[in-house]
What does this fold into?
Amino acid sequence: MQYNRWYDNNQNLKIIIDSIITAHQNNLDSIAYDLIQVMFEKQPDKDDFLEIISKNINSQKDRWYDNNYMFHSAIEMLKFVSPEAAERILKETLYLWQYEDKIDEYEDFHRH
It folds into this structure.
């Protein structure tokens, strides 16, 4: 099997990332911003992390997430953390999104 995307060889990452486009199409910018923020917060050497990314970011534009600059940047940045860390960051971000949606629904329900 040939892998086209950096995360295709990791089944968990593939499932999580591919599910984002299905479940959160309208929120990709916000999710990407949160992913970048969580990822950056978890870096022990932020300057080193930024230097590595700036030297190695892929500008290829033929994947589904490349149509959204912010999301493209977030997914590309995930390449520079371990697969385990990428999975934790994705899960944490999506959990927060799901939790925030529930809070918004609860507040909307009780507001009326």
In short: The chain has a mean pLDDT of 80. The two ends are 53 Å apart (CA to CA). The CA atoms of residues 44 and 50 lie 11 Å apart.
